[in-house]
Amino acid sequence: MLENKMGYPILPSPFASFNGVAASIARLIITFARVVTGEFNPLKHGFGAANTSVAQFGGKILALAEYDLPYAVKLTPDGDIITLGRHDFRSCEPFLTMTAHPKVDWDTGEAFAYRHGVVRPFLTFFRINSDGRKQKDVKIFSMDRFSAIHDFAVTKNYAIFPNTQIVLNPLWILRGRSPLGVDRSKVPRFGIIPRFAEDEREMWWIDAPGLNMLHCVNSWEEDGGERIVIVASNIVSIEQVFENIDLSQLRLEKIVIDVKAKTMERYPLSDKVLDLGVINPAYAMKKNRYVYAAVIGVKAVVGVVKLDMSLTTKDGGDLKVASRLYGSGCGGGEPLFVPREPSNPAAEEDDGYLLTFVYDENTDESKFVVMDAKSPSLDIIAAVKLPRRVPNGFHGLFVSKRELEKL
Ligand SMILES: [Fe+2]
């Protein structure tokens, strides 16, 4: 919001806007001056980005970013989105930021989320009750340094955090680099904590060499809770993640953690570069079969695939049972699965629609596209030309008219 008003970047950004010591100091001075004059108060008003994801829980639709409170938004009767303001879930303790991928247990209405910071504790976990009230922080001091954690996994009994090789080193600013970078000498780990824990006493960590999880697609428990299964994307070429995300070789994996033996097994789900995986939302935190994922091409999502996880083998293999490429010059967004009969418990898992936005650079037009998720070529059954271009984005949310009317 602030940068939009000014027309140029003001705030030092860990991803892009560090260009050496002089530029960083200049930005800090300008930011400090704006804080002193009262024009900019991030503690009170936040940063206003809210550009990473959208979630619905606690009776709100929330726009989220990585380092801010969620912003509650509302749809007006004529289709506009208005911002209601930052939302702190009526927290009983200071609460200033959370990340953009909270997890909702639709059976209980509870949500689980976290924040990561540059000072101890580097990770803080918390839950939001079904009445929309945030519960006390669980500070994770066994996280011994900052690690960028974009997403995590939650099952009926556990929360699982990736501790990645993406770290913070302020000295890198002196070299004109972002303070966020990759430490190849660090072994990635996964931290497992009971999801209702009040402190970190029962948390344990497991090494996960070569596993830098980016997005969790789904996670559940098997064998009475003795095994945790996580379907997630892994950044294989981690050193490329800040330079060329399309070269970072994102791959989907099924990760199985043996809770008693404290061991991990991994199963590749595709040899293609895939991310932004989604499922039928009725299966969140439950064992599911189908994953729909974006095919990542050069600087764009070039298509979508449907994977059948019942075909998983230790050695990989082709789990693809349907796919669609958007065509030359066309880039899509995150796919979303919408069940055809959401209130029919007997409906098949893949009986529904895949939605996405597709931008065609040949015509400079965007379309809202609806695909049949059961068809082998993900047939387009509706395409709506939009009045203006929709830029490629990160994440989205489908909210039915009935749910919207309840909010
Ligand atoms: Fe994300």
UniProtKB/TrEMBL annotation:
One of its GO terms (biological process) is carotene catabolic process. This is Zeaxanthin 7,8-dioxygenase. Its cofactor is Fe(2+). GO terms for molecular function: carotenoid dioxygenase activity; metal ion binding. Signal peptide: none annotated. It comes from Handroanthus impetiginosus. Belongs to the carotenoid oxygenase family. It is an enzyme of class 1 (oxidoreductase). Keywords: Dioxygenase, Iron, Metal-binding, Oxidoreductase. It comes from the Eukaryota. It holds the Pfam family RPE65. The keyword Zinc does not apply. One of its GO terms (cellular component) is chloroplast stroma.
